[in-house]
């Protein structure tokens, strides 16, 4: 977002189809919220430098438009227009990591209705390919990324709402 001393505050505004960003002021307080349009009913957001320019970019999971919105950051707390990339049905959560080991960040969503995760491979420029979907449990509510088996490849964990358990997807790259 900006190169300031503390992280900015960002929140999804589900009713409005927007993300609100609040930057810290010189006196340590939070400034006025600025809204940026995204898809329909955003449910989660994540921040990372998706295009390698040193500025944080913003991604939202949008449950009613079945997609993610990518907003490239300018480095001053503002963002460009949202670009939508399709996910499967009802994405609830989004996480960011290099899943295929090519040095470019990828996106993954936890999809509530379709009971799967969507993996969107990144090109390193803020553009993502067509989603690949992998079954993962029942009524997914959240997804996290980490190297669970110590092989250097990032794996996925989902929280499953109906069954009150988690699913682990080991990366086979």
UniProtKB/TrEMBL annotation:
Keywords for this protein: Signal
Protein name, UniProt field: FG-GAP repeat protein
InterPro entries: FG-GAP, Integrin_alpha_N
Highest taxon of the lineage: Bacteria
Claim: Signal is one of the keywords in the record: yes
